[in-house]
Amino acid sequence: MRRSTAPPRVLTVAGSDSGGGAGIQADLKAMLALGVHGMSVLTAVTAQNSLGVQGAWELPVDAVRAQFRSVVDDIGVQAVKTGMLASAELVEAVAELLAGVGAPVVVDPVGVSKHGDPLLASSALDSVRHKLLPLATVATPNLDEVAQLTGVRVEVEADLRRAAGAVLDFGPRWVLIKGGHLRGEAVDLLSDGEEEHWLRAPRHDNRHTHGTGCTLASALAAQLARGERVPAAARAAKAYVTGAIERGFALGEGIGPVDHGWRWR
């Protein structure tokens, strides 16, 4: 028998969504859909469904460190994606681990859930700004997270450039500002302070968009693991998540998830 070659390996460091639409669950689904091997470091457990987050419990720092070392030291990674990190202590521990990883890092600075539930302690914001963002190959904040981290409020498309500059001041190599909350077409801005790439897609009339941010960041990490440069990786990730939003489906009584397997259906 011919031995199969392992696909590129991507590690997500994030929280669990018991409803399966966001967090670790969304990350691993997106990674599978895009042909990479997903691995996980669980940082927190949430009780979560289509209506919101009913509870959240962060894991001990030692448990997070042990998971990370277990995967990286034996299996290795071609990219890492971070999501919900919950507390300053966890942010700083993860930043310390990432400093020696030697692979692209996508930082999704998760602050609140789709329903407005807080997923990051306010006391952790400085750690995100000064410890985590400087390690990012690409940071992927949405407009609420931009305001939380920088104070810049984006009201119209022209504000995206100012938002990108404010996030880049904290040290990531690239930033992808997600403009999905703006009116009109779905437009994101990818910038490194010199190059700009405006990523545009039609806006789909579908309220079932739970997990959009996690999915985009994971798709971006998957493309980087496959050897794509950041602009090409971002375009491919945008195309994938646009299709997933279009096919998002109802679950429960609230906001359903995007469809990670839309290309197979």
Automatic annotation (TrEMBL):
Its EC number is 2.7.1.49, 2.7.4.7. CDD domains: HMPP_kinase. Pathway: Cofactor biosynthesis; thiamine diphosphate biosynthesis; 4-amino-2-methyl-5-diphosphomethylpyrimidine from 5-amino-1-(5-phospho-D-ribosyl)imidazole: step 3/3. It is an enzyme of class 2 (transferase). It holds the Pfam family Phos_pyr_kin. Keywords: Kinase, Thiamine biosynthesis, Transferase. InterPro entries: HMP/HMP-P_kinase_dom, PM/HMP-P_kinase-1, Ribokinase-like. It catalyses: 4-amino-2-methyl-5-(phosphooxymethyl)pyrimidine + ATP = 4-amino-2-methyl-5-(diphosphooxymethyl)pyrimidine + ADP; 4-amino-5-hydroxymethyl-2-methylpyrimidine + ATP = 4-amino-2-methyl-5-(phosphooxymethyl)pyrimidine + ADP + H(+). GO terms for molecular function: hydroxymethylpyrimidine kinase activity; phosphomethylpyrimidine kinase activity. Residues 17-259 form the Pyridoxamine kinase/Phosphomethylpyrimidine kinase domain. Catalyzes the phosphorylation of hydroxymethylpyrimidine phosphate (HMP-P) to HMP-PP, and of HMP to HMP-P. NCBIfam families: HMP-P_kinase. This is Bifunctional hydroxymethylpyrimidine kinase/phosphomethylpyrimidine kinase. It comes from Streptomyces pathocidini.
